[in-house]
Amino acid sequence: MRHGIRAKIGTTGIYIVCIFLALLSIFPFYIMIVNATRSTYEIQSTAISLIPSTHIIDNWGVFDGKKFDPIKGFLHSMLVSTGATILAVYFSTLTAYAVVVYDWKLKNAFFTFVMCVLMIPAQLTTIGFYKMMYSWGWVNSFAPLIIPAIAAPSMVFFMRQYMIPALSLEIVQSARIDGAGEFYIFNRIAMPIMKPAIATQAIFTFVNSWNQLFMPLILLRQDKYTMPCMVSLLNNDFYKTEYGAVYLGLFLTVLPLFVVYFALSKYIIAGVALGSVKG
User: Fold this and answer.
1) Among 33, 83, 86, CA closest to 56
2) CA dihedral 41, 42, 45, 48 (to 10 degrees)
3) What is the CATH number of the domain that holds 148?
4) Sorting pLDDT into bands at 50, 70 and 90, what band is 268?
5) Are 165 and 278 in contact (CB under 8 A)?
């Protein structure tokens, strides 16, 4: 009896802690939404308010004078994020497939090289990368933000760890005996087996690409800015920063990420759990 009571108390305590942590995680986003409806004076006079205000239309009107076009920024971000996600997921899975399925002399050395590349900070390559893009005439183009996603060392590592126990080499051999080509085997057999891992990495890659600010600011001009770059324009006024408009811009920036996450959250949980067990 006492053991049952203790178990119930322990379970209740776990639920209370989880609910508290969930509310703590949601709270900053709620404050952002509330501030998107408040004026700059209200935000400066009262830093935190739980009650929405009535200035959302005025904050939207600030966009006209700041060259903030949410539709254009959304389309630019969607193009960059979708393209980078497709390339990263497909070619990283293909690379992991080559490392796992094929037996070639420098396979282990190649995988070690991929891991070494993973440890190099991206900031170290920024100047050289910009010079190369400038010499190729790719400045103010979306190509430098999309095509380099083909090389994603962290994703190659994740896909390899997931694929080793998930993909049976006997199935691959059987398909070869039946006359299937290598790309047919990869696209029709390996890719469906990797679906949970692919969905998980696709979501993470999409969110990371959508939130990029540093490289788009360096490579793009204002006519091709993505959503985070446009939000940075709202915060760079020399005379006065309209904080309500800034919060509204931030809300519009993260809104698609909310939709993607809530629509595909089950794949994140399932993919990470399966990947950790299989790895």
Assistant:
1) 33
2) -140
3) 1.10.3720.10
4) low
5) yes
User: Is residue 136, in this structure, part of any structural domain at all?
Assistant: yes
Among candidate residues 47, 27, 38, 24, the one with its CA nearest the CA of residue 248: 38
Q: What's the total number of domains in the chain?
A: 1
The set of residues, in sequence order, having a beta carbon less than 8 Å from that of 172 and lying 6+ positions away, is: 101, 185, 189, 190
For the whole model, what pTM was predicted? Answer: 0.81
Residue with tokens 């090289």: 113
Whether 227 contacts 73, CB under 8 Å: yes
Q: Are 71 and 60 in contact (CB under 8 A)?
A: no
Q: Which domain, by its residues, includes 77?
A: 65-278
Residue 182 Cα to chain centre, angstroms = 30
Residue 34 included in any domain: no
Q: Which of 42, 47, 14, 54 is nearest to 28 (CA)?
A: 47
> Is residue 270 very low, low, confident or very high in pLDDT (cuts 50, 70, 90)?
low
SS3 119: coil
Residue 195 domain-assigned (yes or no): yes
Average pLDDT score over residue span 210-223: 89
The pLDDT, as a whole number, for residue 277 is 45
pLDDT at 276: 46
Residue 263 pLDDT exceeds 80: no
